[in-house]
Specification:
alpha/beta, elongated, 6-stranded mixed beta sheet, 20 helices, 9% strand
Length: 606
């Protein structure tokens, strides 16, 4: 579909695929199998047509009232059965009906519009959660939320202005053009058409020019704001080096550039407003002069003269906002296009058609000759084979970049293996549903991130629908219950954004309670205590050990002291298993594990 031309009017130098974006919205306003939505759309459009029909006939009452007040107009008014007062009341009633039907249109359509916005937002939000880890680590979370926000607002703007402003305006112009043609002559219509055409052309051209300046102004504003924030965030550094004057000068230069662009923006706005006034006034005067000549010749009445003036004002008032609406519609199409592009992003990891739910009998985890790399040209795991028996605790250790955490991501199926297979109780994770896989695995990560909600909510997140008794039991098992009850608001205490109101150990215990509540048969501990101090680490290690009883546990560790009692320790180096066995056996072998152990022991002594 051919899009609108690329323009900096969009403030982001993107190309607007206008019709293609609009076509994507239509199914949400006219959905298959939902008669009530279609019924409301039809009623809203019918009411819209009635309101515009009343709007274009209203000046006719105005004309009749004026003619009735003329010395020779009483007879005509008497024949109509209405005097000047009655016609004036009818005129007022018609104006009131116009507004009333417009509001009725909004009332009828608002449920359809809001439903479409909600459906779009939900679909986009759900799709983002379906996208792979690879996509999310390359995108900024704030950027994704802004895409949803701007896209939904863009749809809302498009519905309100394109459907209820631009569309009705075009309908009204056509009706008024027909009235001018039939009640007067073709020259009135010609003047109106030429005036509107020149007005639209001038507005679009100047708006394109203006927003280039506006883009420059926005860029300068962003630059000044970034300099100010950067300076304030580094307040201590500025003080250390006595650089207050330097920072003030940098900020002032940025604000000077903003000032220059802002002045030019205001000048261009004045030019736009004056040019629009010249064109509108020119068209208005031309039509009024033609009507005045007609009155002098006796072809028209004074009421006709007034009615023409009313029609011209009725036309020009909505046109005054054309520049703003034009720019905002283009920006709305850009924002909606970004949202629809996001919806078209394919999910890298998808359930196979007819995929079955995972059935865990014992919890055996097996990697068979697994090869994987985030980049195909740089493999991380190189033919790994590992078998974790049901109920066994296996620790995976190795230097940074050896592939430890990658195994955890493959187990949770954030990515699919390149070659080989990853099996749980002899079921390939690629052949089962992701939802059932995630339900059977509990994860305690290195940094437990909590929702900005209550402690109760964060623990209950492990199993929505859990009873109060079960939530408290999980908290007690994680040794966090006493701390929670000591808080002024107990379990209803808000933990702050990402749980920042709690210490690292407290957050970790909440995370353990959450996973205990989930009660999964397979447990993944991804460096769960590496960020904690020694005392807190020892306390939590005891809780994690108790948590692993009766479960298949895979522990990814950096501190070797935390996994010395594991049933088996697997040593990874450069994506290959170089050693495996129990702690004492590996130390006796004096290999890679012994080297890592001795080096960490020396570091701790220092």
């Amino acid at each position: 579909m051919r899009g609108l031309s690329k323009t900096e009017a969009n403030l982001n130098d993107a190309q607007v695929q206008g019709w293609s974006v609009i076509q994507r919205v239509v199914p949400y306003l006219w959905p298959d199998g939902q008669a009530w939505v279609k019924r409301r759309v039809v009623i809203a459009l019918a009411v819209l047509f009635i309101s515009k029909l009343i709007a274009v006939t209203t000046p006719l009452f105005y004309r009749e009232a004026v003619d009735a007040l003329a010395p020779d107009g009483m007879d005509a008014a008497t024949m109509m059965g209405l005097g000047a007062v009655g016609l004036t009341i009818a005129y007022g009633f018609a104006r009131l009906m116009t507004v009333g039907f417009q509001q009725l249109r909004d009332v009828v359509f608002t449920r359809v519009g809001q439903r479409a916005l909600r459906q779009l937002a939900l679909e986009t939000f759900t799709h983002i959660h379906r996208l792979s880890m690879r996509y999310h680590i390359t995108r900024k979370t704030g950027g994704l939320s802004r895409i949803i926000e701007r896209g939904v607002k863009g749809v809302d703007f498009l519905l309100r202005f394109l459907l209820f402003s631009i569309g009705p305006l075009v309908l009204e112009l056509l009706m008024i053009g027909a009235i001018l043609f039939f009640l007067f002559d073709v020259w009135y219509l010609a003047v109106v058409v030429v005036t509107i055409a020149l007005y639209v052309w001038f507005t679009f051209k100047v708006t394109e020019w203006r927003v280039k300046i506006r883009k420059e102004m926005n860029d300068q504003d962003t630059d000044a704001n970034q300099k100010a924030i950067d300076s304030l965030l580094n307040f201590e550094t500025v003080k250390y080096f006595g650089a207050e004057k330097w920072e003030a000068d940098r900020y002032d230069v940025a604000m000077e550039n903003y000032e220059d662009a802002a002045i030019r923006t205001n000048y261009s706005l004045a030019f736009l407003n004056f040019g629009q006034s010249v064109l509108i006034t020119g068209g208005l005067v031309a039509v009024m002069v033609m009507a005045a000549v007609g009155v002098q010749r006796g072809d028209l009445t004074v009421g006709d003269f007034v009615m023409v003036n009313a029609y011209m004002i009725q036309i020009t008032m909505p046109l005054n906002f054309l520049g703003t609406v034009y720019r905002e519609i283009r920006q709305a199409l850009i924002d909606m296009g970004d949202m629809f592009d996001l919806l078209e992003q394919p999910a890298e990891v998808q359930d196979k058609p007819g995929a079955k739910a995972l059935v865990v009998n014992g919890g055996r985890v097996a990697l068979k000759n697994v090869t994987f790399g985030y980049d195909a040209a740089r493999p991380i795991l190189k033919g790994i084979s590992l078998d974790v028996a049901p109920g066994q605790t296996v620790a995976i250790v190795g230097s940074s970049g050896s592939g430890k955490s990658t195994i955890g991501r493959l187990l949770f199926r954030f990515y699919d293996v390149g070659d080989g297979a990853l099996l749980i109780d002899d079921q390939d994770v690629r052949d089962i549903t992701q939802a059932s896989l995630h339900a059977q695995i509990g994860v305690v990560p290195q940094d437990t991130v909590l929702f900005n909600d209550t402690v109760h909510y964060n623990i209950a997140y492990g199993r929505p629908g859990a009873s109060e008794h079960e939530i408290i039991a999980a908290a007690k098992a994680a040794k966090i219950h006493d701390f929670i009850t000591s808080l002024p608001e107990g379990y209803q205490t808000t933990v702050g954004e990402r749980g920042l109101k709690l210490s690292g150990g407290e957050k970790q215990r909440v995370g353990i309670a959450r996973t205990l509540l989930k009660n999964p048969p397979i447990l993944l501990l991804d460096e769960a205590t590496s960020a904690l101090d020694t005392e807190t680490e020892m306390e939590i290690q005891a809780e994690l050990k108790a948590m692993g009883e009766g479960r298949t546990v895979i522990t990814i560790a950096h501190r070797l002291s935390t996994i010395a009692d594991a049933d088996r320790i697997v040593v990874l180096e450069d994506g290959i298993i170089v050693e495996e066995g129990r702690h004492d056996d590996l130390l006796a072998a004096d290999g890679r594990y012994a080297h890592l152990w001795n080096r960490q022991s020396e570091d701790e002594l220092v």
